[in-house]
Amino acid sequence: MACVHMAALAANLPGLALATKALIAPLLIVVVLSALPRRQPTARWLTLALVLAFLNDVVPGFTPWSHGLDPLLFMLALAVYAITLAPHWVRELDGLHLLLAIPYGGVVIGLFLACAGGAGPLLPLLVVYAIVLAAVAFLSAGVNPLTWIGGTLLLFSSSVLGMSWFLPGAWIPQSDLWVMGSYLTGQALLVLGILRTVSARRWAPEPAGASLVIVEG
């Protein structure tokens, strides 16, 4: 579906591009609900993030008057991804994961400084957007390689998208293809990486160890 969407963008077929884009998040929701029990917190958070991503994908296309919702919906989706990643990041915490804050923080700070001048009244939204984006990139890097790559691609996609929102005059050749290609791939890898770490933990053998049994007579 993602390949069809990218082909539709490249061929300048907006109707097909919008229709295929609207199907991607629901397909990922089906994958999540097929892989995890619905009562599990990770399944609920992932589903919520994908619902928000779905709304971000389709609302502007079907309701042109609502373009101002783009940054807000996408920011909310990123915030829910950060909440989903946080407990898995804590379980895998080590020194290398903490060092990853430096390059990701540098990218986000650079994006903020570049866009702050053109944000105008949207500056508070830009601040929150930058913080949430940094959190997702940082947390995703500390779970497993799939989430690491996925989070990095989302950082790239969101940076290009943020420039189009907050930096007047910013122009990148074929930006739609770059944004959507990295966004769709990044989101899929992020979701699959989270599912993989949850599945691996579920089937991990219990640690062997001595146990003390007290028998009362």
UniProtKB/TrEMBL annotation:
Primary subcellular site in the record, as a coarse category: membrane
Family statement: Belongs to the TMEM86 family.
CC terms in the record's Gene Ontology section: membrane
Localization, UniProt: Membrane
Record-annotated membrane-spanning stretches: 16-36, 43-62, 68-86, 98-120, 126-146, 153-171, 177-195
Membrane topology field: Multi-pass membrane protein
Entry protein name: Lysoplasmalogenase
UniProt keyword annotations, A-Z: Membrane, Transmembrane, Transmembrane helix
